[in-house]
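REQUEST ID: PR-0412
SUBMITTED BY: lab tech R.K.
PRIORITY: routine
TASK: structure prediction, single protein chain
INPUT:
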Amino acid sequence: MSEAFDVVVIGGGPGGYIAAIRAAQLGLKTACIDKRGRFGGTCLNIGCIPSKALLHATELYDQMGHLARLGIKVEGVAVDLPAMLAHKDKTVDELTRGIGFLLKKHKIEAIVGAARFTGPNAIEVTLNDGGTRTLTAKNTIIATGSDSIALPGMTIDEKRVVTSTGALSFAEVPKHLVVIGGGVIGLELGSVWSRLGAKVTVVEFLDRITPTMDGEVSKNFQRILTKQGLAFKLGAKVTKVEDKGADKPLVLTLEPSKGGEAETLEADAVLVAVGRRPYVDGLNVEAAGVALDARGRVAIDGHFRTNVAGIWAIGDVVQGAMLAHKAEHEGVAVAETIAGQAGHVNHDAIPSVVYTAPEVAAIGKTEEELKAAGIAYRIGKFPFTANARAKANLETDGFVKILADAATDRVLGAHIIGAHAGDLIAEVALAMEFGASSEDIARTSHPHPSISEAIKEAALDVDKRTLNL
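STATUS: complete
OUTPUT:
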């Protein structure tokens, strides 16, 4: 006999559990299914949260070597890697248990198991602890997220050849770590192990790292990371990784992306970080009649509806940026739409952040995108070298860049490289949500002395009237 729900959410990651909570808040009988055993999805279990725990810890360790510039002498600083990894694991454990509490608090049926469609409104769950449950749903939300992309010519063992999952738990610091892919995941985790003493080489297929970023930011980002010790091989692809034995280095074969002579590179560990793919494995979407697009994503309209009435999809499994906060936003919107409200997401105002040191944050359009679209724009920039608080804190790397419509002055995008960029970008996100102009930001009082004043000064520079440069 099947159990009936108003909403069944398949996937307990940031999009899924948030959608379930919002649906329950709106009075809908809700179930949330996740097969991992711990709710929170990739982000909380093996992604955003554990990586940030390691990024923060290693950044503090790195800062110890520079405190003499502030008049602080530190001796005998050492890394206890098992303790650092234990802190990471403890953080994940506490937060996943917190999500379990939230689901219980909102009277959501939390089901641990693998879900598969048996029809348009029918779901069978193979429970992790044995047995099955059959559910029917007036509305089903697919929020199954994404998985790491593998490459041909290499075998992932999560010990020496790893995805981001294995790179969170190396038992010891690799002497030489090769990162395949110059995107967010590779650069964040490469930074972690570089600070702990690894030689890190990043191999990127294209001719620059972070290729979706604003070009000027990307160029400066690579310069800063190079100064920190990371090495880059651009315009190259790894065609093979050979494991010649546990006591011998891995041997990578590299070829120029545009053709040419191959070369070899030895490494103790290899991180494959070439992107992620939408995850619908085992979901049996065919039984429900749900269509996928050419890239394997669940096809949706502008309101998260699939081609099957009553089935919706959000997060990494659909079009758009693969970001936890984007999925959360969509989770709220789809629950409100199901409840008859006006759920909406402005995808032009979703920020993205690289949590290296310095951080890199972006929102809206890049210069390259505006040029390609033929949109006239003005630029405002302000370097952190001219910000008083940044100078006092020895955090002067980077700048703020604001792009505004040449005719209306409406903010079209912002790009920040520098300390606290991930927090600073939230101000611009709010401004863009309200359709603000650069003048609106420029005339908003910012506290002094603060890093945030760089946002104001960049906005002033759109009109070429900075006050502190």
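NOTES: The CA atoms of residues 388 and 449 lie 6 Å apart.
REVIEWED BY: pending
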